[in-house]
Specification:
- The chain is about 40% helix and about 20% strand.
- By secondary structure, the chain is α/β, with parallel strands linked by helices.
- The strands form seven sheets. A seven-stranded mixed beta sheet has the order 14-17-18-13-12-20-21, sandwiched between helices.
- The chain binds nicotinamide-adenine-dinucleotide (NAD).
- The site of nicotinamide-adenine-dinucleotide has 31 residues, from helix 8 and helix 9.
Length: about 500
């Protein structure tokens, strides 16, 4: 691993053969309408590949293939131990091809190569393996019936699943859907974001190599308003799983209602509070963590700790530590293994982030760090991690999800006020509290309206615990055995004895 260098990755990037076609029924195909769009790297503005721009036509073909595959039973009725073996092979192939996948991810959406390799690709393999390993260890139920009845409560795969995913952790977000959907025997159609389609297209081939039958895993690159909408409105898609913005999540609920009332599970946006009480056990650790919570992945993280709530009594001591910690997060070349902050995904996202920075200043917040676009000479899209002090929770930068490295500092005076500010948001994805008082930590965890609460850390977690949101951050949960609920129907079978 220590052999990696900028020139290593540059050479490897120059040799990459990038596939841009859709993957349907076990093969790569151009879009039925023949259209393509350019995949542009935010690192230097260069075109990486032409991508198939799929439409409703392709959705029809892929859904028909997925349905045929499901009904054949080759995968849907395979013994769970068999599906486990295939998913384990799939995970192993992802590990064997980790460098290529990480490179595709970095070139495509600008994240640092070390994160792509050690976070995105590593955790993708882990998610597939975890679900594969779990599936032959879960049992169905026998109901507590009267003596002359046998009641079986069984789980069945739902059939054709469509997964629409975002660009911030393209492969990893997909793996949180693919793992449980495939483990439980469904066929799946993955629609990656138009901003980051490359790894999804590549792993489809690995899935086939691993032994997933053709038609069981299809990839349709394209725009949300074309192929995404077509999948969401499709009468034969039984379940739609989504990770992305709250705005699109709401639209998908409408599509589900307008079509076949497909089951719909949404992982949406966030505006997570990170609360530092005066009795936090280690202010240095809290400061390091607060900086990482907003700068990691360029702040393009659904759980980004974008609101830092500081108890007034420690603010003068604590805030300089945060500013110092944030100064360690400097944008750099995403292919340099030392880089911690890469490029934003595209110029549109840059405009959004810069507009929010402007709005923070206009609303009277005080810019303490960052605030500017940098490295323009590279042709890439980079912005400095930015910190505003003197933010009130009513300001736009405290209410709206920026999805960039912009941190808002808000003061509070009491436990009650901290919780009230923390919960004063339409979102409910995550929250963190820093305190040495175990009772206070538990009381805060109970009072915070969020799907994940971290105590004396930010962003802990692995495959063993469910992940998802309260309120307008979504419904249902990814990860853990709870994720199987999304991909299975419960059936009650009554046998008269
Ligand atoms: P987005 O909602 O713009 O797009 C997500 C996906 O939806 C893309 O594939 C897009 O093509 C598709 N889409 C867009 N319009 C559509 C339509 N009308 N019909 C069907 N599909 C459509 O989100 P994004 O900008 O890609 O990602 C950022 C968002 O994702 C942020 O809000 C972030 O918080 C959220 N996110 C949430 C989680 C979570 O687990 N809760 C994780 C990562 C990202």
């Amino acid at each position: 691993m220590s052999d990696y260098s900028l020139s290593y990755w540059r050479t490897k990037a120059a040799d990459l053969a990038i596939e841009g076609r859709a993957f349907i029924d076990g093969q790569y195909l151009t879009a039925a309408g023949g259209e393509t769009f350019d995949c542009v790297s935010p690192i230097d503005g260069k075109v990486l590949a032409k991508i198939a721009s799929c439409t409703a036509l392709d959705a029809d073909i892929a859904v028909a293939s997925a349905k045929r595959a499901f009904e054949s039973g080759e995968w849907s009725r395979m013994a769970p131990a068999g599906r486990k073996a295939v998913l384990n092979r799939f995970a192993a192939l992802i590990e064997e091809n980790a460098e290529e996948l990480a490179l595709l991810e970095t070139l495509d959406m600008g994240k640092p190569i070390s994160d792509a390799l050690h976070v995105d690709v590593a955790l993708t393999a882990q998610a597939l393996r975890w679900n594969g390993e779990a599936i032959d260890k879960v049992y169905d139920e026998v109901a507590p019936t009267p003596h002359d009845q046998l009641g079986l409560v069984t789980r069945e795969p739902v059939g054709v699943v469509a997964a629409i995913v975002p660009w911030n952790f393209p492969l990893m977000m997909a793996s949180w859907k693919l793992g449980p959907a495939l483990a439980t025997g469904n066929s799946i159609i993955l629609k990656p974001s138009e901003k980051s389609p490359l790894t999804a297209i590549r792993v489809a081939q690995l899935a086939i190599e691993a032994g997933i039958p053709k038609g069981v895993f299809n990839v349709l690159p394209g725009y949300g308003h074309t192929v995404g909408k077509a999948l969401a409105l499709h009468m034969e898609v039984e379940t739609l799983v989504f990770t992305g913005s709250t705005r699109v999540a709401k639209q998908l609920m409408v599509y589900a209602g307008e079509s076949n009332m497909k089951r719909i599970w949404l992982e949406a946006g966030g505006k997570s509070p990170n609360i530092v009480f005066a009795d936090a056990p280690d202010l240095n650790a809290a400061a390091e963590s607060a900086a990482a919570a907003i700068a990691f992945n360029q702040g393009e993280v659904c759980t980004a700790g974008s609101r830092l709530l500081i108890e007034r009594g420690i603010k003068d001591k604590f805030l300089p530590l945060v500013v110092e910690a944030l100064s360690q997060w400097k944008p750099g070349h995403p292919l340099d293994p030392e880089t911690k902050v890469g490029a934003l995904v595209d110029t549109q996202q840059l405009d959004t982030v810069l507009k929010y920075i402007q709005s923070g200043s206009e609303e009277g917040a005080k810019l303490l760090a960052g605030g500017k676009q940098v490295l323009q000479e590279t042709g890439g899209v980079f912005v400095e991690p930015t910190l505003f002090d003197g933010v009130t929770n009513a300001m736009k930068i405290a209410q709206e999800e920026i999805f960039g490295p912009v941190l808002s500092v808000i003061e509070f005076d009491s436990f009650e006020q901290a919780i009230s500010i923390a919960n004063d948001t339409p979102y409910g994805l995550a929250a963190a509290v820093w305190t040495a008082d175990i009772s206070k930590a538990h009381l805060a965890a109970k009072a915070l309206r969020a799907g994940s609460v971290w105590v004396n850390q930010y962003d802990g977690g692995d495959m063993t615990a469910p992940f998802g949101g309260f309120k307008q951050s979504g419904n249902g949960r990814d990860k853990s055995l709870h994720a199987f609920d999304k991909y299975t129907e419960l059936k009650a079978t009554w046998i008269k004895l």
